[in-house]
Amino acid sequence: MAKTLNVGIIGYGFMGRTHSNAYRKVANFFDVPYKPVLKTICGLEEKEAKAFADRWGFETYTTDWHEVIDDKSIDVVDICVPNNYHAEIAIAAAKAGKAICCEKPLALNVAQAKKMVDAVEKAGVPNLASFNYRRVPAVTLAKQLIDEGRLGKIFHYRANFLQDWTISAKVPQGGMSTWRLDVKAAGSGVTGDLLAHCIDTAMWHNGPISSVCAMTETFVKERVHAETGKVEPVGIDDACTFFCRFDNGSMGNFESTRYARGHKALYTFEINGEHASIAWDLHDLHRLSYFDHRDDSIVRGWRSVHVTDGDMPYMGKWWVPGLQIGYEHSFVHQTADFLTNMAKGKPTAPTFRDALATQKVCEAVLASAKVGRWKDITY
Ligand code: SOE
């Protein structure tokens, strides 16, 4: 009989839902060593917190995150609130000896992220940064193919994350649903929110990024603040493009914007190696495109691999070959790995330290855009 693991989730927004769903489903599909119990949901508004608790089956709710930390029965603190709260909550949770899962990006900046890494490492608590796309089976399969050496030497890594939801100047900044546009809550715009995903996946696939050269733009310079009701300057980057060099000698090319009309969450990457190339697209997330130059020329071409077979990453735990899964399952997978490693006393990547590396790249990207020059990154 698996031991119970009491979970306190802080934040009942979009991410609060993805994480709650993952804890609910994980033990049904994966042989995890714990049975997660949704103990407490915490959020700002009491009515919303109560409704969330009822809907998702939490035992209780609170509007004060300190109560989650102080509750000795809680084993895991899961942070799903805006970025400006991550550091304070995570550091308090580490001091209280909790295992911690924290949404991305880890913090507002590198200085905060370092403090979070120090806190979890000093306390020796399990920690995971929620860069969920690593655990989309096709993305995990890409990592497997690279590690098996199928691509050979890698020359190029390019990634995009395109959206279109902030084009209207009427979209406010700040508040519950548009805090991502408020620099005080988010730290940055597309760089921390979207490119951080691409950077995390890229460094996992292709190793550390050593230098960057970036360009950013803020297309809408002022927006009403949802909390103050006043028109205030916009401090985030609406769009960001950067080039980079990886330690392994390959070149990177990354772009993100919330102004690409027609695209909702178009995260794509393509990796070109000496022998083979790989491409992936979040809008078609269960497929991995693969081209292998070593195939006979008469049948050589891009294959579209339907990542649903039982011998493909995570897929043996779901339905039967041919039946696909989706976005929410990437959170179930990260939770399965987190719990399994926790029981073995092993870290689960991306750890806070891995997320600090991503934060360093994001900060270098923003600094480079400001001065218009290349920036080196040291880890
Ligand atoms: C922003 O719209 C957002 O929700 C990000 O915050 C998520 O990390 C990304 O996965 C989808 O887009």
Structure description:
Helices cover 34% and strands 26% of the residues. The chain has helices at residues 14-29, 46-56, 65-70, 86-95, 110-123, 137-147, 175-178, 183-186, 190-206, 328-344, 352-371; strands at 3-10, 34-42, 60-62, 76-79, 99-103, 127-130, 154-162, 209-217, 222-224, 231-233, 239-246, 251-257, 266-273, 276-281, 287-292, 303-306, 375-376. The longest helix is centred in the C-terminal third of the chain and has 20 residues, at 352-371. It is globular. It starts with a strand and ends with a strand. The structure holds alpha-L-sorbopyranose.
Derived structural class: alpha/beta
Which term fits the overall shape?
Answer: globular
Q: Within the CATH hierarchy, at the fold level, what is the topology of the largest domain?
A: Dihydrodipicolinate Reductase, domain 2
Number of domains: 2
Residue-averaged pLDDT: 98
Query: Gyration radius, to the nearest Å?
Result: 21 Å
Neighbour order of strands in the largest sheet: 16-15-14-13-7-12-11-8-17
- What is the string of SSEs from the N terminus onward? EHEHEHEHEHEHEHHHEEEEEEEEEHHE
Number of helices: 11
- The helicity comes to 25-40%
Ligands bound, unique: alpha-L-sorbopyranose
